[in-house]
Design goal:
The structure is a single chain. By secondary structure, the protein is of the alpha/beta class. The chain folds into four domains: 13-189, ATP-grasp fold, A domain (Dna Ligase, domain 1, 2-Layer Sandwich); 195-318, 2-Layer Sandwich (D-amino Acid Aminotransferase, Chain A, domain 1); 345-452, Glucose Oxidase, domain 1 (3-Layer(bba) Sandwich); 468-765, TIM Barrel, CATH 3.20.20.60. 37% of the residues lie in helices and 19% in strands. The strands form five sheets. It has an eight-stranded mixed sheet with strand order 14-21-20-16-17-18-19-15. Helix 11 links the parallel strand 17 (376-379) and strand 18. It starts with 12 loop residues before the first strand and ends with a helix.
């Protein structure tokens, strides 16, 4: 394609040592993290970044930017075959682009600044990549041993085009990215890797924070992330950097860098099974990893390469998939009616959880149509282009790979049980047979097998010596989004559901159809039936514990993404726009759907209660409650009426809300924080300002609790912060909150934090009493 001129005066590149975290929106997480490491003095190979504005300007100059965005958005509803075809067409569009002359010249000057005809790695660095909640592991392309101006430009275009691969399109759909995508690029001097690998500063399998897990292989590290070999695994104590455990892998070949391209080299038997890293290198890498974690203040996933005995860091990102570190383990395989308890295969447990389903042994991506929703994928290994298949699988089992390979990372992000490195799963497991995958232990059983830990007695029947938690005066609830997780969560030591997000069931049970579109199509009853079934299941497994159902609270931009969402208004700031209580006043038919669902559920199960979100003023709440009172559900006065406390005006209106008949308030800490501090909670640029522990936010929380208590209302907090910050949990207990509602994976840890806080309060009171006497 012929390029037009690009905007004058723009800079397209930046040296890596001039970048830091605040540059992530323009150069991507990968480049920003490398820049931060370089500026902090860590060993990072010289590099420069090509900012995302270069991609946007090049697409604009070629006249295809709008076409890419429109056709990419249309892929959200495409079937796999259509997605593949459209993806290839979009990639071809990008690869044919001719860069504007000034942009090409600047990129080539930056390249020559790394040295004459230096060999470089060209890696994608999307703005959302390597962020705190997403890794984009292996989603976009990278190229190694690129030499020369022309080869570099070709590699940059190839990186840009990988924004439109099926796996990239699918990943964005799964992670809910609705904005126009863009991509930056890192160009980095090649490290001639004798060996390379990855290091996790917390165990990605268990979440344990007191150890470092290192995986290493000979040659380039792509064989690890791609799961092409079983790497060595070294587990190192974070306290004294002593070796806790190691597993020597099996590597039949290595990828060696070379000027004529990477070469696959078959390894002799003695190299295939020898230890890759000596004790000194293991310790050095572990110390480097721990220093990086300390610098960032959060667990990290690093990539390293060793050249002439020197260790180089070529990438770091936050670990996005840590679970609760308090998962109980036992040595029993499990029990099941008529099922054998001898495992079929063993491997590395790389994604926690258990799943039972039909095994589909797929040896090539072309066979993926045989895998239905809920089947278990058994494969030699998965690559990033398998992502559209992984999203359908209930669990993933592979012959190769380590805990940091693509299947493991993406499987954990999708919440699937994952077992890798089994060596022989594809030959031992029979296609079409029913199997059970235990991702905690790395074992696969024939038939439907219930792990021993899943069938523990109810807490009330445990003798005192068997109790694993202590009771707390502060109730511990969980946040829940779908019926699928309800059975497992209900079996844990929680007091109920403090936040059931109705909107997530729209995208699940209803297949992503807009409620208004269903009403217009005469499918109102279908909506009620499907939603009722989901809520009833959750209420039944938690009964008699309470389940607080929050009415649908999608923002207008989120509603617009649903099928039939073209009726939504176009808002500049949907976060504080047409949503919550005010929307129910303007669209009583929407609120009526929630009321009908709850009325049906409560005719059989009385533990479900209603919560109204995003209440701004007294008059809108009064009108909303008038709709409730006019509905048959309004006569059910045993149903508690909650509101979300997200808008600071709730502090002023609390007594009036109580007089309107509200029974309780649940503090939404995310919205409250953003509105107290005036910072968009979704802003990457302003993320350093977003702090729920800010004294102003804590003071607002205290005032809400105090005024609610004075008005006779119960109080809870269901925001993300209480699940991740023990300080906030203790602060809430000391403030006298009635309950907290957390993510299921942090419930056990939060229960202990709450119990400890309650004990400290009693001790403080005892000391004060003693001092007074």
């Amino acid at each position: 394609m012929t390029a037009q001129s690009a905007p004058a005066g723009q800079r397209w590149t930046a040296s890596i040592d001039h970048l830091g975290p605040t540059d992530a929106p323009s150069v991507g997480g990968k480049a920003a993290n490398l820049g931060e490491l370089a500026r902090a003095g860590f060993p990072v190979p010289p590099a420069f970044a090509i900012a995302e504005n270069a991609y946007i300007a090049a697409m604009d100059a070629a006249g295809i930017r709008a076409e890419l965005a429109d056709r990419g958005a249309a892929c959200r509803t495409a079937e796999d075959a259509d997605l593949d075809s459209e993806s290839q067409s979009l990639q071809d569009l990008v690869r044919r682009v001719n860069l504007p002359d000034d942009m090409r010249a600047e990129i080539c000057r930056a390249y020559r600044g790394l040295g004459p005809d230096v060999s470089v790695a060209v890696r994608s660095s999307a703005p959302a990549e390597d962020a705190a909640d997403t890794s984009f592991a292996g989603i976009h392309e990278s190229y190694t041993d690129v030499v020369g101006d022309d080869a570099l430009i070709d590699a940059v275009l190839a990186c840009w085009s990988s924004l439109w691969t099926p796996r990239a399109l699918t990943y964005r759909i799964l992670r809910g990215y609705g904005d126009e995508p863009s991509i930056a690029v890192v160009v980095q001097r090649m490290v001639r890797s004798e060996c390379s690998g990855v290091a996790f500063t917390a165990d990605p399998r268990t979440g344990a924070r007191d150890r470092i897990v290192i995986e290493a292989a000979l040659g380039l590290g792509e064989v690890i992330v791609g799961g092409q070999v079983e790497p060595d695994t070294y587990v190192v104590s974070k306290g004294n950097f002593s070796l806790v455990d190691k597993n020597i892998g099996a590597q039949a070949f290595a990828i060696r860098p070379g000027r004529d391209g990477d070469r696959r080299v078959d390894l002799p038997r003695e190299d295939a099974t020898r230890q890759v890293l000596g004790p000194g290198l293991v310790r050095e890498i572990a110390k480097l990893a721990a220093a990086v974690e300390e610098h960032y203040g959060a667990p990290q996933d690093l990539e390293f390469a060793v050249e002439d005995g020197d260790v180089w860091l070529v990438q770091t990102r936050p670990i996005t998939t840590l679970g609760d570190t308090d998962t109980e383990t036992d040595t029993d395989g499990g029990t099941g009616s008529g099922a054998a308890t001898t495992p079929l295969v063993h491997g590395l447990g790389a994604g926690p959880g258990t799943a039972t389903g039909t095994a589909r042994v797929l040896t090539a991506l072309g066979d993926s149509a045989r895998l239905g929703d809920g089947d278990i994928l058994v494969a030699p290994m998965t690559r990033p282009d398998w992502l559209p298949v992984l999203r359908r699988a209930a669990a993933i089992v592979t012959d190769g790979g380590g805990v940091t390979c693509h299947a493991a990372i993406v499987g954990r992000e999708l919440g699937r049980p994952v077992i890798v490195g089994t060596h022989d799963a594809t030959s031992v497991i029979t296609d079409g047979s029913v199997i059970t995958v235990d991702g905690d232990r790395g074992t696969v059983f024939a038939g439907a097998v219930a792990p021993a830990r899943a069938s523990r007695p109810e807490p009330a029947t445990l003798p005192p010596s068997a109790a694993t938690t202590e009771p707390t005066a502060t109730a511990l609830y969980v946040n829940l989004a779908t019926p699928e997780a309800a059975d497992a969560v209900a079996a844990t030591d929680v007091d109920g559901v403090g936040l059931l997000r109705a909107e997530f069931m729209i995208t699940g049970a209803l297949g992503g159809r807009h409620p208004a579109a269903m009403i217009a199509a005469g499918r109102r009853r279908e909506y009620i039936d499907d939603m009722t079934a989901g809520v009833e299941h959750i209420a039944a497994v938690f009964a008699p514990r309470p389940v607080v159902y929050r009415a649908v609270d999608l923002r207008s931009n989120e509603f617009a993404e649903l099928e039939g969402g073209d009726v939504e208004p176009d808002e500049d700031n949907p976060m504080i726009g047409y949503r919550g209580c005010f929307r129910y006043v303007r669209e009583p038919e929407l609120f009526g759907l929630d009321l009908d669902v709850l009325h049906r559920v409560r005719s059989r199960l009385h533990n479900v209660h209603l919560m109204i979100p995003f209440v701004r003023t007294r008059w809108e709440l009064a009108e909303c409650l008038a709709q409730l009172d006019a509905h048959p559900l309004g006569a059910d006065r045993r149903m508690h009426r909650w509101i979300m406390a997200e808008v600071p005006s709730v502090m002023y209106w609390m007594p009036e809300y109580a007089r309107l008949g509200i029974d309780g308030v649940s503090i939404g800490s995310n919205d409250l924080t953003q509105l107290m501090l005036g910072v968009d909670r979704d802003s990457e640029v302003c993320k350093d300002l977003f702090d729920t522990m800010d004294p102003a936010v804590l003071d607002a929380i205290d005032r809400i609790i105090d005024r609610a208590r004075a008005s006779g209302l119960t109080t809870s907090l269901c925001g993300q912060a209480v699940s991740t910050d023990a300080r906030l949990a203790e602060h809430l207990v000391r403030s006298g909150i009635t309950s907290v509602s957390v993510t299921p994976d942090s419930a056990a840890r939060t229960r202990r934090v709450v119990a400890a806080a309650e004990r400290r309060i009693l001790l403080d009171q005892a000391r004060e009493t003693a001092a007074g006497t």
